[in-house]
Amino acid sequence: MKLLVILLFSGLITGCRGNSSHSLPPKLLLVSFDGFRADYLQNYEFPHLQNFIKEGVLVEHVKNVFITKTFPNHYSIVTGLYEESHGIVANSMYDVITKKHFSDLDDKDPFWWNEAVPIWVTNQLQENRSSAAAMWPGTDVPIHNTTPSYFMNYSSSVSFEERLNNITTWLINSNPPVTFATLYWEEPDASGHKYGPEDKENMYRVLKEIDDLIGELVHKLKVLGLWENLNVIITSDHGMTQCSKDRLINLDRCIDNSSYALIDLTPVAAVLPKINTTEVYNKLKVCSPHMNVYLKEDIPARFHYQHNNRIQPIILVADEGWTIVLNKSLPKLGDHGYDNSLSSMHPFLAAHGPAFHKGYKHNTINSVDIYPMMCHILGLKPRPNNGTFGHTKCLLVDQWCINLPEAVGIVIGALLVLTTLTGLIIIMQNRLSVPRPFSRLQLQEDDDDPLIE
């Protein structure tokens, strides 16, 4: 048994050494397809994405952070922080001290981003490294006076092909080399809002286009010789759920809109009272049985959404599929932002490259776990974060990982081997101790006189 353990340990050391010795610095491309709900993978066909997964790893569900909206979750992925810690707490924000406003149309002020340090800044500050970005939220902002060496100012009119061409050019030709790059695409989020995720016909068309883009991405990397040495992560910020005109929460029926300001709307609404906070809270609390109303200090701890000045005094959280409105109109047939424990809000993660196993599937990780994993791949010292590197070890070839079923199997196997060996030893001992025929006729030192002389 000792010999078996020594051989096994020696093999692991050899394997780890073999996987960690690369002459080229590790490179990582992080790709986000906004609003890619995890179970789209089960409900639609993705031949290109499935081929990518077969040669890499798949995390079937990524539990994202609350609130499950675009800007907050994209920043959590690249900082490893909950929203209360990194400061991007919604798509629309208001700071009561500076009187500043933030929105997806006015997001370039570093003030909003400087509460955290995203991975592209950490990578950018290393010697002989640079970062590149194609429209990932925040990459066109000088965060802590630093932008990626190569980036694109955000414009939804720029095609995926142009974004991809820029990224691959920077990965190949930059000096110092680009070792971390990000690529963002607005779909299937835009179509999920427009049609709703239950519109099979339209979502089939949109998701086929997404799969074709993934095929284009892989083909481009192979043609340029990047495929074998580049680590690629494909993921998303959140999922999507179906909404309906029959599931509306009309605030105007409950409270005069002159008594508060609505900073961020549906399905998690941020309320800034203009009169007594308790009075506004009491009126909103009885507004609808399909909406939870929290004073800031009472927001559930599991949301990690309380300790930041940008979180407003009252937060409204609609039930899944319900929409908070100020009138009777339904703005979107699909939406996100709901409770992050809902599976409909979860995206997925797929990865390929020298850092990752091949053909491995994992059930779930947290979105904040992606950051320490990326830092490990790039050899960066991670900033303080809310992620757990141990949650992603099973995805990586240079990490020793045993999950619970495997551990149980190993223990049972070891017990069976020990039981078998013990049984064999007992049998052998019994055979050796069985008396030979006529052995009683042999003289023993303490025998009496022999019967036959």
TrEMBL record:
InterPro entries: Alkaline_phosphatase_core_sf, Phosphodiest/P_Trfase. Pfam families: Phosphodiest (PF01663). One of its GO terms (biological process) is blood coagulation. It is found in: Cell membrane. GO terms for molecular function: bis(5'-adenosyl)-triphosphatase activity; metal ion binding. It is a single-pass type I membrane protein. Its cofactor is Zn(2+). It catalyses: P(1),P(3)-bis(5'-adenosyl) triphosphate + H2O = AMP + ADP + 2 H(+). Its main location: membrane. It is an enzyme of class 3 (hydrolase). Its EC number is 3.6.1.29. The keyword DNA damage does not apply. CDD domains: Enpp. Residues 1-18 form the signal peptide. Keywords: Blood coagulation, Cell membrane, Disulfide bond, Glycoprotein, Hemostasis, Hydrolase, Membrane, Metal-binding, Signal, Transmembrane, Transmembrane helix, Zinc. The keyword tRNA-binding does not apply. The chain crosses the membrane at residues 407-427. One of its GO terms (cellular component) is plasma membrane. Hydrolyzes extracellular Ap3A into AMP and ADP, and Ap4A into AMP and ATP. Ap3A and Ap4A are diadenosine polyphosphates thought to induce proliferation of vascular smooth muscle cells. Acts as a procoagulant, mediating platelet aggregation at the site of nascent thrombus via release of ADP from Ap3A and activation of ADP receptors. Belongs to the nucleotide pyrophosphatase/phosphodiesterase family. This is Bis(5'-adenosyl)-triphosphatase ENPP4. It comes from Lynx pardinus (Iberian lynx).
